[in-house]
Amino acid sequence: MEVVMTFEGSRRHCNNFGFLRLLFASLVIISHSAEIIDGNRSREWLVSIGGTMTLGEVAVDGFFLISGYLVLQSFQNSTTVYSYIIKRVRRIYPGFIFAYVTCFFVVAPFAGVDFGSLKFTSYLKYALQALMLNGPDLYAFPSMPVHALNGPTWTIVYEFRCYLLIVLIAGLGLYKWPLMFAALSIGLLLLNEVGFFIKVGALGRIIGNPMFLVRLASLFCIGSCFYLFRSKIRFRVEFAIIACTVLTASIYFSKFQEAVFAIFGGYLIFYVALHIKSRVLVSINSRVDISYGVYLYAWPIQISLAYFFGIHSPWTLTIIATPFAYVAGLLSWHFIERPFLVPAVAERRTYA
């Protein structure tokens, strides 16, 4: 049983990317519940069964794989680099800025943040922080083992850096040489696995933590490879079973686990996204995409519930917080994100 999905097929909305993104956002909720309550990962579900990666890390990796595929598609469909950048800004900034402001002015005052010690220059610093897509670094929830107002938002700035990386790679002409680009992507994966340390100094303000950048950019680039080679990749159910088996076995091995997920997990993700035909899956989180809002608001909702109501069970926290996060994601989509999107883009859902 075989199918070759083309770009045109994915544009016609016959895919399950929306379902997968909501699934990954939900996995982040499950993963963070234990960390919020305990301050460590000992009760995190995947770690507790012997895994070396958390569900949250798996979900973030999945997000960047999907983003690499869809954002390169968006770039190649853009008439100019400027129009591409504007689409990316419209997609990522409004939701993030509103979530930042909500955390700062709504959540923080009730979370033990000492606003009395903040000077005028501090507010300017936080405004710049928001514009740079960095999460609020206020000390909050003093009685909790973790004190971040919105922990997961650290990945957002790396997502945007990957958007800019596409422009750089296109400028170098690497997309015209798919094999060379694939070699570069695999090289980044291997560099991430062997580990490295490099002092970047002031450059860190632009590229962030080099290790985080290499990790997430490698996944993003592998996702782009799946797009570049979309006409050559064969999706078979037996290959998907093999990929699933390899992924399951890799849970218990720390070496090259992320690289294994990038290749085999990537294959499985795009198999599910482009191969499985299900009206139910296609309809989930499709034209109404709540996944970004769920990702942005889940942590402050979870930690607030644990802080104010003394919840000590990760599963209880997950069950209670998830519906609230979904509602927050729905409100974010309808009132914040969607109004900033070009109508055609919002309808076709080809953005990441």
From TrEMBL:
Signal peptide positions on this chain: none
Any single biological process term in GO: polysaccharide biosynthetic process
Keyword Transmembrane helix: yes
Gene Ontology MF: a single term: acyltransferase activity, transferring groups other than amino-acyl groups
Annotated GO CC locations: membrane
Keywords: Membrane, Transmembrane, Transmembrane helix
Residues annotated as transmembrane: 49-72, 92-111, 162-191, 211-229, 236-253, 259-276, 288-309, 315-336
UniProt superkingdom: Bacteria
Domain Acyltransferase: 19-330
Keyword DNA-binding set for record: no
Protein name in the entry: Acyltransferase 3 domain-containing protein
